[in-house]
Amino acid sequence: MKKYFFCFIIVVIGFASCSQYEKLRKSRDYQLMYRKAFEYYDANDFVRSGQLFDDISSIYRGTNKEDTIAYYQAMSYFNQKAYETASFYFTQLYRNQRQSPFAEESEYLSGYCYYMLSPRPNLDQSNTFAAIEAFQIFLMRHPESKFAEDALKYQGEMKDRLVDKSYLTAKLYYDLGQFKASIIALNNSLEEYPETIYREELMYLLLRSNFLYAENSVPARMKERFQSTVDEYYSFIGEFPQSQHVRDAQRMFDRADRYLKARPDEDDN
Predict the structure, then answer these.
(1) How far is CA 233 from CA 74, 167, 236, 248, in A?
(2) CA angle at residue 242 from 238 to 243, to 5 degrees?
(3) CA distance linking residue 24 with residue 262, whole number of Å
(4) Which of 58, 89, 102, 117 has the maximal Cβ count within 10 Å?
């Protein structure tokens, strides 16, 4: 019985609290709303603080409290993990109030929000590109900032994610047996990210893609495609002579070389 009574009291208190909060939001006591917004923020009730900062942001526009409200409005959403909304408010703050003491941190946090929104590599990377660009601009404007080291680190992580995306996309074509598309994607990945950690794997897959593309070609196109296989073999073995794929690479080379030697004067057309 005591348990149910205790729960009833909690519910009553909760309803009363909600009622008081809604009355506050509908009131015109903006000074009280301003004060309560910070009380809610300090109590980690970021939903209510965010709503109150939303309610009073236009009221204090043009006053010396405008940037403070804008910063804590953005931080309220940031702490709710509503990063898209938070980034919007951070961006508005540093663009419109560059002299504010909150401007530098807001510019950094705007990029950090995109960083938090960046998905795993196999998904769309629009937010990854946005994070890289935001951090790059921030580092150009604030090279000595206390946030510069973190911005550089997070920017590096986002670039690595794009490398992963490029690798996975190219490999997907190979895994699907679309060897013509695979050759194009693998070459693009190597050209765009020549220092990629996947370089050995990409070059090996490029060799295999050329070989399998030749193997599955019509007779009239096999010679030129086996010649491409030989060319890719020399590129791969020249750069990675100790690769774990050397034996398989040699097998593909021998098959291509035998074909070419058997048809030295065959017309490519």
Answers:
(1) 55, 20, 5, 10
(2) 90
(3) 89
(4) 89
Residue 199 · residue 211 · CB < 8 Å: no
Q: What stretches in the chain show pLDDT beneath 70?
A: 1-17, 265-269
Interatomic CA distance for residues 196 and 191, integer angstroms: 10
d(CA 9, CA 15): 10
CA–CA separation, 70 and 54 (whole Å): 9
Q: Whole-angstrom distance between the N-terminal and C-terminal Cα of the chain? A: 93
Per residue in 188-224, is it b (16+ CB within 10 Å) or e — as a string? ebbeebeebebbbbbbbbbbbbbbbbbbebeeeebbe
Domains and CATH numbers, the chain: 25-165 (1.25.40.10), 176-269 (1.25.40.10)
Of 161, 229, 239, the C-alpha closest to 201 is 239
Where do we find the tokens 């937010």?
127
Q: Answer left, alpha or beta for residue 267, where phi above 0 means left and psi between -120 and 50 means alpha.
A: beta
Reported as a single tens digit per residue, the pLDDT across 118-171 is 999 989 999 999 999 999 999 999 999 999 999 999 999 999 999 999 999 999
**Exposed/middle/buried for residue 22 (C-beta within 10 Å: 0-12, 13-18, 19+):** exposed
